[in-house]
Amino acid sequence: MGAQVKYVLDETKIPTEWYNIVADLPRPPSPALHPGTLQPLGPADLAPLFPPELIMQEVTAERQVPIPEPVREIYRQWRPSPLIRARRLEAALDTPARIYFKYEGVSAPGSHKLNTAVAQAFYNKEAGIRRLTTETGAGQWGSSLAYAGAMFGLEVRVFMVRASFNQKPYRKAMMEVWGAKCVSSPSTETEAGRRVLAEHPDTSGSLGIAISEAVEIAAQNADTNYALGSVLNHVLLHQSVIGLEALQQFEMADDYPDIVIGCAGGGSNFAGLVFPFLGEQLRGGRKVQAIACEPTACPTLTRGRYAYDFGDTGHLTPLVRMHTLGSAFVPPGFHAGGLRYHGMAPLVSLVQELGLIESRAYNQTPCFDAGVQFARAEGIVPAPEATHAIRCVIDEALRCKQEGTARTIAFNLSGHGHFDMQAYLDYFAGKLEDRNYDEAVLQAALADLPKVPA
């Protein structure tokens, strides 16, 4: 029998509580503001969009939040997810580094997004809500909410960013299998969508636009709520099951990461793995180097400004303090659709401001280079989003080889790329371009940030 590859927990080890990093931070996050009054939001301001329990989770400073048993029961369909030692990749790189990945592609939709979709569907069902609206970039979140809606008998309408809607038709099909309706965004179904189409009929769309459409529908219908797949505190809270399981699995492996890595678009899969490890560090445990990896075509953490901004393009959402490229910024239509968002989770933004994490930006061609190298060693075809983390992992492993140091590297393989084959076909055909944003467009978007008194 060879050396162990998979570290698998029993279903009884699924966490019973989510972890909230707010309890361990040296300062609290800035409050969300009402866009009209610029005053901190109260629960009543969020009530048209979210059920009471999620509003509470959004603002709580408690370290642990209990996971309802109906949510854990559905988690059992795929959780605990495996922690895998990438021994074949280590051998291919001839590195002394020990590489592990938490594989979230084992869920039915194939990504980590289901961790929060199930929780959000449960709380909305409990509150008597009948319908949910949402946005999706690459389609992983949309298909996850479609699945969760089917589990709890909720209707789901998904506004999918046009670039991804055209690139990934099978994601739309998956949503429809589970009973959801998927619409290309911007659409003619909302005032926000019609306004964008009138001004930019050929737009590739953006998550900010799709959020505006979903929020508009939810705000206009009393039996409908909005669900967000990333960015908000309660979403990052739900994703903490990833890192909480990983902590147990590293005990099984008799190892502990020196470096923890995740791709970052809105911040949920990165935070899901990294925040429990940062929590251990903040409470006096071992220090880790945490790296968030993003596309150079949408460099929210590496180029964005830390400021109050709208979470959507139509300015229907509250103002949150985050790293942002400006709500009017529309990134190029590169293949990692889940990373095409102008803002970053306020909590991820804050931990970067506190110096607890660092961020790096990568072009998509070297990311696909890394994704293919990983697939040929480990057998799993990663989603384009996750290839950004893999690029960083390989670079760090090669640095260990150069320096002769045996560091332990852990990353979140947030989802598989089975619905991204056109992207890989483009890569092998030499059609994949390292697309970049227009600097003038970025500066214009940043110049248009809301004026919030210090």
Automatic annotation (TrEMBL):
Record has Amino-acid biosynthesis as a keyword: yes
Pathway(s) this gene product operates in, as recorded in its UniProt entry: Amino-acid biosynthesis; L-tryptophan biosynthesis; L-tryptophan from chorismate: step 5/5
Any one GO CC term of the record: cytoplasm
Key words of the record: Amino-acid biosynthesis, Aromatic amino acid biosynthesis, Lyase, Pyridoxal phosphate, Tryptophan biosynthesis
Gene3D superfamilies: 3.40.50.1100
Listed InterPro entries: Trp_synth_b-like, Trp_synth_beta/beta-like, TrpB-like_PALP, TrpB-like_PALP_sf
Leader peptide range in chain numbering: none
Gene Ontology molecular function: L-serine hydro-lyase (adding indole, L-tryptophan-forming) activity; pyridoxal phosphate binding; tryptophan synthase activity
EC number: 4.2.1.20
Superkingdom assignment: Bacteria
Coiled coil regions, renumbered to chain: none
Residues recorded as bearing N6-(pyridoxal phosphate)lysine in the entry: K113
Residue intervals of the Tryptophan synthase beta chain-like PALP domain: 77-415
A Pfam match: PALP
Top EC class of this enzyme: lyase
Cofactor: pyridoxal 5'-phosphate
Reaction(s) the record says it catalyses: (1S,2R)-1-C-(indol-3-yl)glycerol 3-phosphate + L-serine = D-glyceraldehyde 3-phosphate + L-tryptophan + H2O
Entry-linked PANTHER family: TRYPTOPHAN SYNTHASE, TRYPTOPHAN SYNTHASE-RELATED
Known role: The beta subunit is responsible for the synthesis of L-tryptophan from indole and L-serine.
Binding partners and assembly: Tetramer of two alpha and two beta chains.
Name this polypeptide is given: Tryptophan synthase beta chain
Originating gene: trpB
